[in-house]
Amino acid sequence: MKNLSRLVITASMALVVVAAASASSNLWLTSYKDAVTQSKKTGKPIMVNFTGSDWCHWCIQLDDEVFSKPEFKKWAQKNVVLLELDFPQRKALPAALKKQNDELAKKYASVVPGFPTILFLKPDGSVFGKYGYDPGGAKKWTEMASRLLPGHKPATR
User: How many Å from the N-terminal Cα to the C-terminal Cα in the chain?
Assistant: First the structure.
Protein backbone atom coordinates (compact mmCIF):
# COMPACT_ATOMS: atom_id res chain seq x y z
CA MET A 1 0.00 0.00 0.00
CA LYS A 2 2.88 2.37 0.81
CA ASN A 3 4.36 1.82 -2.65
CA LEU A 4 1.02 2.62 -4.28
CA SER A 5 0.74 5.84 -2.26
CA ARG A 6 4.26 6.85 -3.23
CA LEU A 7 3.51 6.12 -6.86
CA VAL A 8 0.33 8.23 -6.78
CA ILE A 9 2.13 11.11 -5.06
CA THR A 10 5.06 10.95 -7.50
CA ALA A 11 2.74 10.85 -10.50
CA SER A 12 0.72 13.79 -9.14
CA MET A 13 3.87 15.85 -8.63
CA ALA A 14 5.01 15.07 -12.18
CA LEU A 15 1.66 16.21 -13.55
CA VAL A 16 1.93 19.50 -11.64
CA VAL A 17 5.40 20.13 -13.09
CA VAL A 18 4.22 19.33 -16.62
CA ALA A 19 1.14 21.54 -16.21
CA ALA A 20 3.25 24.44 -14.96
CA ALA A 21 5.66 24.13 -17.87
CA SER A 22 2.77 23.89 -20.31
CA ALA A 23 1.08 26.96 -18.84
CA SER A 24 4.20 29.08 -19.33
CA SER A 25 4.64 27.94 -22.91
CA ASN A 26 0.99 28.75 -23.64
CA LEU A 27 1.87 32.43 -23.56
CA TRP A 28 3.63 31.97 -26.89
CA LEU A 29 1.55 31.36 -29.98
CA THR A 30 3.11 29.53 -32.90
CA SER A 31 0.49 30.44 -35.52
CA TYR A 32 1.05 33.77 -37.26
CA LYS A 33 -2.61 33.85 -38.27
CA ASP A 34 -3.71 33.39 -34.64
CA ALA A 35 -1.30 36.10 -33.48
CA VAL A 36 -2.71 38.56 -36.05
CA THR A 37 -6.27 37.72 -34.99
CA GLN A 38 -5.42 38.20 -31.31
CA SER A 39 -3.56 41.45 -32.05
CA LYS A 40 -6.56 42.88 -33.89
CA LYS A 41 -8.90 41.73 -31.13
CA THR A 42 -6.84 43.15 -28.24
CA GLY A 43 -5.18 46.13 -29.90
CA LYS A 44 -1.78 44.84 -28.72
CA PRO A 45 1.20 44.60 -31.09
CA ILE A 46 2.75 41.25 -31.97
CA MET A 47 6.13 40.46 -30.46
CA VAL A 48 7.81 37.88 -32.70
CA ASN A 49 10.68 35.80 -31.35
CA PHE A 50 12.85 34.41 -34.17
CA THR A 51 14.71 31.69 -32.32
CA GLY A 52 16.77 28.55 -32.69
CA SER A 53 15.49 27.06 -29.46
CA ASP A 54 17.68 23.97 -29.42
CA TRP A 55 20.99 25.28 -30.77
CA CYS A 56 21.29 29.09 -30.48
CA HIS A 57 23.20 29.98 -27.32
CA TRP A 58 21.87 33.55 -27.11
CA CYS A 59 18.29 32.39 -27.77
CA ILE A 60 18.52 29.91 -24.93
CA GLN A 61 20.06 32.55 -22.68
CA LEU A 62 17.31 35.07 -23.56
CA ASP A 63 14.68 32.47 -22.69
CA ASP A 64 16.42 31.55 -19.41
CA GLU A 65 17.13 35.13 -18.28
CA VAL A 66 14.03 36.90 -19.56
CA PHE A 67 11.18 34.97 -21.17
CA SER A 68 10.91 32.36 -18.40
CA LYS A 69 10.67 34.96 -15.63
CA PRO A 70 7.37 35.98 -13.99
CA GLU A 71 8.19 39.67 -14.52
CA PHE A 72 8.40 39.17 -18.29
CA LYS A 73 5.24 37.06 -18.40
CA LYS A 74 3.30 39.74 -16.53
CA TRP A 75 4.66 42.46 -18.83
CA ALA A 76 3.87 40.42 -21.95
CA GLN A 77 0.29 39.65 -20.95
CA LYS A 78 -0.31 43.36 -20.46
CA ASN A 79 1.52 44.70 -23.54
CA VAL A 80 1.94 42.27 -26.45
CA VAL A 81 0.78 39.17 -28.28
CA LEU A 82 3.66 36.67 -28.20
CA LEU A 83 4.58 34.71 -31.33
CA GLU A 84 7.46 32.25 -31.43
CA LEU A 85 8.97 31.34 -34.79
CA ASP A 86 11.35 28.50 -34.05
CA PHE A 87 14.08 27.19 -36.35
CA PRO A 88 15.40 24.16 -34.45
CA GLN A 89 18.18 21.90 -35.70
CA ARG A 90 17.68 18.81 -33.54
CA LYS A 91 13.92 18.58 -33.30
CA ALA A 92 11.41 18.39 -36.11
CA LEU A 93 8.53 20.80 -36.44
CA PRO A 94 5.21 19.80 -37.98
CA ALA A 95 5.38 20.42 -41.75
CA ALA A 96 2.80 23.23 -41.75
CA LEU A 97 4.56 25.05 -38.92
CA LYS A 98 7.97 24.70 -40.60
CA LYS A 99 6.50 26.04 -43.85
CA GLN A 100 4.93 29.03 -42.06
CA ASN A 101 8.17 29.83 -40.21
CA ASP A 102 10.27 29.54 -43.38
CA GLU A 103 7.89 31.85 -45.27
CA LEU A 104 8.01 34.43 -42.47
CA ALA A 105 11.81 34.17 -42.30
CA LYS A 106 11.91 35.05 -46.01
CA LYS A 107 9.40 37.87 -45.58
CA TYR A 108 11.43 39.47 -42.77
CA ALA A 109 14.92 38.48 -43.98
CA SER A 110 16.00 42.10 -44.41
CA VAL A 111 15.38 42.87 -40.72
CA VAL A 112 16.29 39.50 -39.15
CA PRO A 113 20.07 39.17 -39.49
CA GLY A 114 20.34 36.27 -37.05
CA PHE A 115 18.99 34.73 -33.89
CA PRO A 116 17.63 35.80 -31.56
CA THR A 117 15.80 38.65 -33.22
CA ILE A 118 12.65 40.08 -31.70
CA LEU A 119 10.38 42.04 -34.03
CA PHE A 120 7.45 44.16 -32.96
CA LEU A 121 4.69 44.15 -35.56
CA LYS A 122 1.44 45.93 -36.21
CA PRO A 123 -1.48 43.61 -37.04
CA ASP A 124 -0.85 44.29 -40.75
CA GLY A 125 2.61 42.74 -40.40
CA SER A 126 4.59 45.96 -40.65
CA VAL A 127 7.62 46.21 -38.38
CA PHE A 128 7.86 49.11 -35.94
CA GLY A 129 10.55 47.83 -33.60
CA LYS A 130 13.40 45.38 -33.27
CA TYR A 131 15.32 44.00 -30.31
CA GLY A 132 17.34 40.95 -29.30
CA TYR A 133 19.33 39.56 -26.41
CA ASP A 134 20.45 42.14 -23.90
CA PRO A 135 22.12 41.09 -20.63
CA GLY A 136 20.58 42.34 -17.44
CA GLY A 137 17.54 40.16 -16.90
CA ALA A 138 13.81 40.56 -17.30
CA LYS A 139 13.50 44.00 -15.66
CA LYS A 140 16.03 45.62 -17.96
CA TRP A 141 14.76 43.77 -21.04
CA THR A 142 11.11 44.75 -20.49
CA GLU A 143 12.07 48.37 -19.79
CA MET A 144 13.98 48.55 -23.08
CA ALA A 145 11.24 46.72 -25.02
CA SER A 146 8.60 49.06 -23.58
CA ARG A 147 10.39 51.98 -25.23
CA LEU A 148 9.61 50.42 -28.61
CA LEU A 149 5.88 50.12 -27.99
CA PRO A 150 3.38 52.61 -29.41
CA GLY A 151 2.29 55.20 -26.87
CA HIS A 152 5.45 54.88 -24.76
CA LYS A 153 6.23 58.15 -23.04
CA PRO A 154 9.82 58.73 -21.99
CA ALA A 155 10.35 59.37 -18.30
CA THR A 156 10.66 63.04 -17.41
CA ARG A 157 13.16 64.29 -14.88
Answer: 67
